Amino acid sequence: MTGALPRAAISEAYLAACRLEVRTLKPGNVHIHAEGHRMTVADFDASAVVSAPFITDPELSVGQRIHRAVVATFDAVGQNTNLGIILLCAPLAAAAGQDGVAPLEQKLAAVLYALDHDDGRDVYLAIAYANPAGLGQDEAGDVRNEPPAAWTLLDAMRAAARRDMIAHEYAVDFAGVFETARQFAAYCAAGASAEDALAVLFLRSLAERCDSHIARKHGIDVARRVQSRARAVLDALALADASAIAEPGYRERLLQFDAELKSWGTNPGSLADLMCASVFAARLLQQASQMGRN
To answer: Were both Cys, which of 10, 79, 165, 236 would link to 212 (CB 3.0–4.6 Å)?
Structure first.
């Protein structure tokens, strides 16, 4: 990465990632092909627009970015549409805005290790404000209270990493986000549209992992059932490449799977958030590469 990306470029990448995420056919989630869960595409679009100024504000700490973005979202749409996206994208935005020639991955790691107790307090407030489904108390502490005195935000995320996909990314320096970003870029370079590339990545991820949002809300057995169904759908499609998913027969099969998951009331929201953050990271890496060539 070459120098700091301009704030406008970071905002553009964030808005583009959020827009793509809700325009991709991701079974069980809200998207332009089928809304659900008492949420609309317009809710997600509005959430992206109102959260972007806080996600990208260089004068704010990571915790402040997250807290203010969550509050702005609720003021705009009155519900939790993007907590996971905000939690993942705020550190990425902070890293992209840092000076220096280190790669984005190294800048992100530095941002994570610099998180402090105040960041943790602000994020606890944000999570309690968003009140995600299944919110409760565990070994990571109750987010409705002050975090333990000695904890930074990274400590809190490490404590929750075993049961939460978003927290796990903090614990591993966003390794999964960057790996998916590289896969997304490779699919696009091979000729797949951004929507098709992301749809395939989402389905493959859902077949490989239990979504922690589903597990928290419905229990691990339901999450495993969703994973098993995703694996069966993926095997049945037998995709030769990412672009094949745009063919009518494949799209119809995904829509059937989407309706099936929504009939169960299941929403693989954590994986959707990871997809959005991965596209954001991919676009930041692309912009940095272009800036380095100029």
So the answer is: 165
**CATH architecture label of 7-293:** Orthogonal Bundle (1.10)
Q: Evaluate if residue 56 carries a pLDDT over 70.
A: yes
The model carries a pTM of 0.93
How far is the C-alpha of 184 from the C-alpha of 61, rounded, in Å? 29
Provide CB contacts within 8 A for 222, sequence distance 6+.
214, 215, 264, 266
CA 188 to chain centre: 19
Classified as helix, coil or strand, 39 is: strand
For the chain, what is the mean pLDDT?
Answer: 90
Q: Please, are residues 99 and 4 in contact by the beta-carbon 8 Å criterion?
A: yes
In 3D space, the residue among 79, 98, 1, 87 whose CA is nearest the CA of residue 40 turns out to be 79
Q: What is the pLDDT of residues 135-145, one digit of tens each?
A: 444 545 555 66
